[in-house]
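Weekly structure sync, notes
Attendees: PL (lead), two postdocs, one rotation student
Agenda item 3: pending single-chain targets
PL asked that the sequence for the first pending target be pasted directly into the notes so everyone works from the same version. It is reproduced below exactly as submitted, 436 residues in total.
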Amino acid sequence: MFKKIIFTLIAVLIAMSFGALAEEKKPVFNVITIDGVITSPTAKYVANSIKDAQQAEAEGLIILLDTPGGMDTAMRDIAKSILNAPLPVIVFVSPSGARAASAGVIITEAAHIAAMAPGTNIGAAHPVSIGIGGSTGDKDKTMSEKIENDAAAYVRSIAKTRGRSEEWVEKAVRKSESITAEEALKLNVIDFVAPDIDKLLAAIDQKEVNLAKGKKKISTKNAVINNKKMGTRQGVLAAISDPNISYILLLIGLAGLYFELSTPGAILPGVIGGISLLLAFFGLSTLPVNYSGILLIIFGVILFIAEIKVMSHGMLTVGGVISLIMGSLLLFDTPEPAMRLSLQVLIPSIILISGFFIVISLMAIKAQLRKPLNGAESMIGTEAETLTDIANEGKVFLQGQYWTATSEKPIKKGAKVRVVKVEGLSLIVEGIRKEQ
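Predicted structure, written out during the meeting:
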């Protein structure tokens, strides 16, 4: 009887152990979100997220994607990270209304499992050249063809690796074709259409994928979703890399330094300006920048500063505003819509910053023209009273002090005089005629 009790307890403990192990072995999927332009910080974010998921022994990484496109180099870095990932990476174009345009097409095709939510679209992956000038000569045409052929071959190779439609992805590159989620499923561009993550995980349970190290079956039963938000550092870097944010930081930086130069000693505007400029330079380094645009913006600020020093009757200010506008329009030299400045940011920014420079310039000019409040120059034009007759020399009382004064014409004692010039400790005065 005693042995039976012992065996029963052992069996219960073993069952509890297996139950605990079963609880511990629930598959975990890390989920990250890419919502916006694809830039270098985005590529680093994806690479780090794959490493974190591997270290956490997650079953896979789900990327919720909604992008209008972005930098070609950043897109290729992301595709490379996904293609060589040690665990399944699932790209899910979601929620409804999202899109995987331009660079988003290649990122989606690189995934081990590509899925879209109803009401989303994918396509328009035609590459655009980035350069200065925008001419359409033979050299530019040849270069454009090279870029297009390279992109087409690249996306075909990825689609072939994943067993998806090579024909359509090439059309997306060469003809900028775009299709809905349902059409993408029919054309074998993606693997699944699902309304949410839970339905997607249910659909891909036990699906076999090819990893860099070999094949793997994805287990999604009782899966645990681990939403991973972008860290503060990565979030700041990603925000700075947005063309609109970088542009605003550049203007704030130049305005701060301009204010510090026009009114020395303010300190705070200079500090804010310096920090903003450094952040702007980081953001601009990750974007397709036309340096002619930056030079034009800086030249505009130089013209505003020159207005303070040179009385041009507003001509330098007008030149500064024109230079600022042209520099802003040329700053990001790319036909890629996702990488251009928004007019909703561009127009108000130009108006505000031009108004700021004009107001500060007017204040500085007004301060220069203002009559001095102390020193010898402040006495010129002031009135005094003679204490003695002034033939060649005499005494006057001015601002609570006695002064030696000279005059070209004789002036009687007690008369009102006006200071014409100050020479050392002597005043040159002239008589004031009394109005009749």
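Discussion points:
- The first strand starts at residue 28 and ends at 35.
- Residues 262 and 402 are 38 Å apart (CA to CA).
Action: rotation student to compare against the earlier draft before next sync.
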